[in-house]
Specification:
single chain, Rieske Iron-sulfur Protein, Naphthalene 1,2-dioxygenase Alpha Subunit, Chain A, domain 1, 2 domains, eight-stranded antiparallel beta sheet, four-stranded antiparallel beta sheet, globular, binds FE2/S2 (inorganic) cluster, binds fe (ii) ion
């Protein structure tokens, strides 16, 4: 049995050892075995609309520059000068033809080539001028750009496995290509990063933790039927990725509709999608979904908003979170207003839901100080069932088994479940090419 995961198929029961949430050695192992060998999300292509736009980002502790070069190509550079290491770009975001180091003035193009070095006659004729360094791999799927520090990792699409289908369900919601809206939510949580991974696809906590939020939605909408959640599934997407997916009936469960204006526009857009993609696929699009792409990217589509969330482990008991809103650019003012309101009032760090989650996670972490006396957490819900819903925990077990495999080398078999019914299987009629954003 693994030190960290007790996957008992007989009882059945699945437990995770709390040492995985507090132990600095486990944290170091994760850095090496997981973050040095996965595809990690850096940002979305639409965050760099113009040539020579850049953003500075941290991925797996590394300072990076996420840029679009002068030819329009997406580039990722290590944000450290090849001379003696100073940070090249010190702004969160900017547009610049040259990335110039402030320390001694070495300057580079956004394509990573050295442009000038002051006083270069003091270097020999044959001196090789260094360019910028980059992560071993950079690739994108439908606008989502990932990097990997492992030169031998499988290609991005193979890595994403079944997650591509759920990215498609989100990205197909725009005829022009979904875009990241201006502005981010940035907050931190005094808890282990894996707790937010679990929480991001935890349907079980919704009604108890977010009772106030649902009361507010009930008051705003006049009706609310959480039993619609029963018509949902927890799904293993392969390679540690997992999703909880709601049927179209869950469409109206979340969000604060400020007015009915916009409903018609939305319906018309989805009618066009029906012609384009077929009913089965559009029905799936209209449901909601919370997906975790292993290890630390979350995409949550609750119809009233789509959140892209990047979780950064900082220490065993501290994480940083960045969240963006993804939207169809063709959306009219009223729908956009509602979307932004929901992004703030549901997901915002001072909203009506996220602070409750943060509180829950931080109290878990506090409790883990007694991990020696109470070593195991339970993630067994639904293990005895053939069909797993949103309120079960199959999706978390899926993620943890992959975590366990990478950290300990022990591969645990997947759970065999009943095949998904048509509602969760329907395919898109016309598949567009996977590498475009449209
Ligand atoms: S460290 Fe950048 S120019 Fe010297
Ligand atoms: Fe929550």
């Amino acid at each position: 049995m693994s030190t960290f995961v007790n996957d008992d198929r007989e009882m059945p029961r699945f437990q995770v050892n709390r040492s995985a949430m507090v132990d600095p050695e486990v944290f170091a192992l994760e850095r090496d075995k997981i973050f040095n060998h996965s595809w990690l999300y850096i940002g979305h292509e639409t965050e760099l609309p113009k040539k020579n736009d850049y953003k500075t980002r941290k991925v797996a502790g590394r300072p990076l520059v996420f840029a679009r070069d002068a030819t329009g190509t997406i580039q990722v550079w290590i944000n450290s000068c090849p001379h003696r290491g100073a940070m090249l770009c010190r702004e969160d975001s900017a547009n610049a033809r040259f990335l110039t180091c402030f320390y001694h003035g070495w300057s580079f193009s956004t394509a990573g080539e050295m442009v000038s070095m002051p006083g270069d006659d003091a270097y020999g004729e044959g001196f090789e001028r260094p360019g910028l360094a980059s992560p071993a791999k950079v690739d994108s799927y439908r606008g989502f750009v990932f990097v990997s520090f492992d030169p031998d990792i499988v290609d991005l699409k193979t890595y994403l496995a079944g997650a591509t289908e759920y990215i498609d369900l989100v990205c197909d919601q725009s005829e022009q290509g979904m875009e990241i809206l201006h502005g981010t939510h940035e907050y931190s949580i005094k808890a282990n990063w894996k707790l937010l991974v679990e929480n991001s696809m935890d349907g079980y906590h919704a009604v108890s933790t977010h009772q106030r939020y649902f009361e507010m939605v009930l008051a705003a909408r006049g009706k609310l039927d959480p039993s619609a959640l029963a018509d949902s599934r927890g799904i293993d997407l392969g390679n540690g990725h997992a999703v909880i997916a709601g049927a179209p009936a869950t469409e109206g469960l979340f969000g604060r509709p400020l007015s009915d204006a916009g409903a018609e526009e939305r319906a018309a857009r989805f009618d066009r999608f029906r012609e384009l993609y077929g009913d089965g696929w559009v029905d799936r699009m209209m449901g909601n979904r919370n997906m975790v792409i292993f290890p630390n990217l979350v995409i949550i589509d609750l119809v009233m908003g789509v959140v892209v969330r990047k979780i950064d482990p900082i220490s065993p008991d501290y994480m940083e979170v960045t969240a963006w809103e993804l939207a169809p650019p063709e959306e009219g003012d009223e729908l956009r207003k509602q979307r932004l309101d929901n992004f703030l009032t549901f997901w915002g760090p001072g909203g009506l839901a996220s602070p409750d989650d943060v509180e829950a996670l931080e109290t878990c972490q506090t409790g883990y100080a007694a991990a020696r006396e109470l070593p195991w957490s339970d993630i067994s819900r639904g293990m005895n069932k053939d069909i797993n819903s949103t309120t079960d925990e199959l999706q978390m077990r899926t993620w943890w088994r992959r975590w366990n495999e990478l950290v300990t080398g022990e591969r645990l078999p997947v759970e065999t479940k009943a095949p998904l019914d048509e509602m969760f299987r329907a395919e898109r009629r016309h598949r567009s090419t996977e590498s475009t954003n449209a």
